[in-house]
Automatic annotation (TrEMBL):
Presence of keyword Nucleus: yes
Family: Belongs to the Tdpoz family.
Occurrences of domain BTB (ranges): 83-106
Record bears the keyword DNA damage: no
Name used for this protein in its record: BTB/POZ domain protein
Gene Ontology CC: nucleus
PROSITE patterns: BTB (PS50097)
Main localization of the protein described in the UniProt heading: nucleus
Cited Gene3D superfamilies: 1.25.40.420, Potassium Channel Kv1.1, Chain A
Location within or outside the cell: Nucleus
Organism: Musca domestica (House fly)
Assigned keywords, A-Z: Nucleus, Ubl conjugation pathway
SUPFAM superfamilies: POZ domain
């Protein structure tokens, strides 16, 4: 299990199954608080008679995961540079937001657009491409999924391409991921000045390394 250095005070709970082939499995519920150097040590009593053991982590819950996600989305909200929609209140106050987040939160709107596609086969709104892709993936609507993927590719821009890269990686879409990496590499100087890239740099070092490898291929 890989833990970050800043998770020292994090509490982890998981089920540990220890078994010897041909013997009844022994299951323990373990809770661990903190870690040193990314290593977890578990002390199990009364297991001296077991040899050639097989250890399996059944499930793991990290109490900090939800907080980390909330923190990441808070940074995205604060990023006006990569926003693509403005909400205006009755008194004229403006709030910069992101269509892909608002759409993802609006299940009714996503369902409406998905039904419109199923009944009419009409072109999808570009701003709904990300949440519709998620819905299409869930319900195995391959043609709709392809349409959403193409819309995300055609509408890539400097401000939000890092978000598109993260989205592609999350959904395991290698074609979209490759397109996003290539786009970023070609526009590396401007993309790295955006808030969406700065957020990606703080949250996913591997994706940033993938981009740097592509930059090296293109420029060296």
């Amino acid at each position: 299990m890989c833990l970050r250095e800043d998770d020292k005070d994090t509490s982890y709970r998981f089920t540990l199954t220890i078994e010897k082939f041909g013997c009844e499995a022994i299951t323990r519920s373990i809770e661990i608080v903190g870690n040193e150097g990314g290593t977890i040590s578990v002390n199990c009593n009364n297991l001296s008679e077991i040899q050639d053991i097989y250890i399996k982590i059944e499930s793991l819950s990290n109490k900090s995961t939800e907080c980390n996600m909330t923190h990441d989305f808070a940074k995205i909200l604060a990023s006006e540079e990569s926003s693509d929609v403005t909400l205006v209140t009755g008194d004229g106050t403006e709030f910069k937001a992101h269509t892909f987040v608002l759409s993802a939160r609006s299940v009714a709107e996503v369902m409406k657009e998905m039904l419109n596609y199923l009944y009419t086969d009409r072109k999808i709104p570009n701003q709904m491409a990300a949440p519709l892709y998620t819905a299409a993936n869930k319900y195995a609507l391959l043609h709709l999924q392809d349409m959403c993927e193409q819309a995300l590719i055609e509408t890539m821009d400097v401000a939000s391409v890092a978000d598109t890269l993260r989205f592609a990686d999350l959904h395991g879409n290698e074609r979209l991921k490759t397109k996003a990496i290539t786009f970023i590499a070609r526009n590396i100087k401007t993309v790295t000045d955006t808030e969406s890239w700065k957020n990606l740099r703080q949250t996913d070092h591997q994706l940033c390394m993938d981009v740097l490898e592509e930059v090296a291929k293109q420029h060296f």
